[in-house]
Give the backbone structure.
Amino acid sequence: MNSGTPLLAIDRLCKAYAGPVLDGIAFDLLAGEVHALVGENGAGKSTLSKIVAGLVQPDEGTMTLRGQPYAPHNKNGAERQGVRMVMQELNLIGNLTVAESVLLGNLPHRWGWIDWRELRDRARGIFERVGLTDIDPGCFVKSLGVGRQQLVEIAAVLARPCDVLILDEPTAALTAPEIERLFVEIAKLKAAGTAILYISHRMEEIQRISDRISVLRDGRLIATRPAAELSLDEIVRMMVGRELGEAIHRESVTAGPVALRVEGLRRGDAVRDVSFETRRGEILGFAGLMGSGRTETMRALFGADRADGGEIFLCDEEKPVRIRSPRDAVRRGIALLTENRKEEGLLLPLPIRANITFLCLGQLSRAGGWIRAATELAEATRWGNALSVRCHSYEQRVDELSGGNQQKVMIAKWLFRNCDVLIFDEPTRGIDVGAKFEIYQLLADLAAQGKAVIVVSSDLKELMALCDRIAVMSAGRVAATFRRGEWTQDKIMTAALSGYLNQ
Amino acid sequence: MNRTANSSARPLLRSFPTEYLGLTLALSALVGVFSLITDHFFSVTTFRTIANQIPSAVLVATAMTYLLVIAEIDLSVGSVLGFCSAVLGVAMTQWHWPLPLAVIGTIAAGLLCGAFNGLVSVHWRLPSFIVTLGMLEMARGAAHAVTRSQTQYIGSSVEAIAGTSICGLSLPFLLAMVIVVAAQLVLTRTVFGRYLVAIGTNAEAVRLSGIDPRPIKLAVFLLTGLLVALAAIIDTSRFQSANPNAGTGFELQAIAAAVIGGTSLMGGRGSVVPTLFGVLITAVLNTGLAAVGARDETKRLITGLVIIAAVILDQYRHRLGAKWKNS
């Protein structure tokens, strides 16, 4: 696949926002290849792909498409020249039907009136291409789960002809069979001569489907190599620029006293009867399939959603505590770091300082609630440094940070609050390999300090590396709990499926 | 390229010149233009007139700024002002209450309306736009019911409030300035103010941080009721009469002042001192145009254009500010 003139060539591309984001990038895309772009968050992958897709203009450098100069001013300009992108963030409009949003901009009509039958037929045809036979084109976008929405979005982009297709984390929300179907579609496009720029954190996928791999680090292109020549270790080494210890440094701990005990927690259909306990100094993992009720359990426990029933005990107390709102939970020393950092965790346009200190403003203020500005900044700096948040200044807006650093700000905020039970829901979603290991180490340190840490994750390997015990949820119940050494991947998967067998 | 940052406290007034430079320039330009065109504009009398006119508008616009910061709105401020004014008038002329008691009653009326707006929109999670739209009608109806649609002439017994002056400045004007400064400091320097900005930015994140936004929102609606009642007392005292139609259109003036000052209607961004500038700019514009001899329709046309121009300029200022920071 490595022959022929490049379809798209990029030369000496530079882009700077607050600091340089891309620095002298030169690479090319061949017709009919899958070119993977890997790198840590903040390495510049998304910016590079956005420049190619016309969403962002470069400061310097040139691009050539089919031998002609290529400098799109916006997304439409790029699309007219055959360059399309499936965004990481969804582009669909929730209040439209699936068919409308897929064909928006190209709605079939007769004298201005939308031709519904034609619309449905065309949409159905588009969905069938990616195997989405069970989606009703008339249903609303917002009624679909995130995974289905992502598939609809991909289908919408695939439906139009293009020469260069950019896929930014397309599989983040997809299930295994959906991913397989996407790969079949990618193979078809490849055979038809489309060049595909594929961005993902998932190394297995990249090694499976890509022909060449380009590694970005700190805005520079480290190397472009045929995928077959690179091992996973080599890729990771190039991405982070240093050797990574495979295992997390986790000292074997003797778990302390019980920190939290949950009995018979129920909420709607998602949480049917959940009981578990967690001890100080222990990391308890929650595994399970999508929709097994893990997130819902944690939200009910935290008071974010009102539980229908069940009891929660703290420490060795005989009496259950009443947790009816997040406020009650936080007062009892329980913290929940939600899976959607941006929507539910951070105050994005506010500075890092304000995010870190938000829960402890009382400690930082004089009588009457006057904040001591110098103390506030000092404390924010202390916690930010403790977690090595990478930023220019603690007055920087949080939405300018990479995903990993945003997560660190979240953790800093809760550590400052000094909670004893820390619940992490998908702590490493959307975070690159290097930052992931930092977060793992952090979780291990927290447990070593005597905190009770609960980690909900869909990444089984992550849980197996990190946790002392893993509770496996299935259909709203804890199906099994394993200790370190007892579990195998097979056992966990069997337990995860068990709840769905006898229904 | 990025290292953990240094920690130095912000000097207290460092932000003043950059923050308010544009607004100061706009205001000075307006004053300058009107002074050049007309002979009478640049005089103590003019400025005293403006200073006497604006206190009630300043109080209402301050309240509106707080509401916009938490991503709420109150369309009923004008009607509630009318209702409060009516209560004051009727209490004094028909029930023959002494002034202090009547003032307390008026404030109670304002707080009652604020509490209704706050409780209904917080408890039933209704958009405050809708709830206060309802209150806009209700309070106006109440104002007419209380006064039987007749303007209540109170006479000199209420004049004491607006008539008192300290160092040549009227009591209402001083009160308004004190409240603006206090509100600005509370917004930028206190825990309460930080919570307001946070709620306007992302109320769900605030809730999941273990801080209940509902009592805080309610407090802002109550504060609005209080400030509107104070504005009503000031205006009633100034005119020595209570008109059930008082305050018509006040809500839009207050929103316009806040918006001219750069407050976002989407919440999370806003400041009180710039709102004061917003009030001043509209007041100078009105007085100046009157001095030029412009007719009412021209005045409204130009005021409307100024509001839109101010928002466009504010957007440019933000983009410029972002560029400055990054270069």
Summary: The two ends of chain B are 14 Å apart (CA to CA).
